[in-house]
Predict the structure.
Amino acid sequence: MRILGIDPGLQTTGYGLVDYVDARPRLVEGGVIRGGASGNLETRLHAIYTGVCSVIREFGPTVAVVESLYSQYKHPRTAILMGHARGVIFLAAAECAIEVAEYPASLVKRSLTGHGRAGKAQVAAMVAHLLGLATAPEPADVTDALALAVCHASPARRIAVPPTAPHHRRARISLPDEVHR
């Protein structure tokens, strides 16, 4: 199984590819896609989209993995902008006919370190250890992307996510009768 982890960002989108061989992760590739520090939003999103499409076409992953979107009350604009970046990532994956999985950051941390509130340094150390690297990849966007990829096939993830977890359920809404007519 080849897994593509993607850490979305408008300036820098990290990606990491991991193959699972004999139930162990093996690093294939890691890097960044530059959306740019300035410029209009559509140009930056286009750069992310074309970069993700290029990585998918070159390496042929089975699945792409991204972190679930969350919003902190103090920074709603950041969550909205990340939603745009995630949207073009999902679009690129759909265009290339690969599935996208998403996990909350706490689950990724718990599956790698055993603790859902682990710090970035702990996660980076485990990514390096699991991939047999002397140090964690730089920049941190690549390490975060690799953490997502490693998490996806981790037995600890399957234990940590109950089958009724909210990110596995579909929401249904009721429409008034006049809408159906």
Notes: The longest helix spans residues 76-95. Residues 4 and 64 are 5 Å apart (CA to CA). Residues 2-180 form a domain with the Nucleotidyltransferase; domain 5 fold (CATH 3.30.420.10).
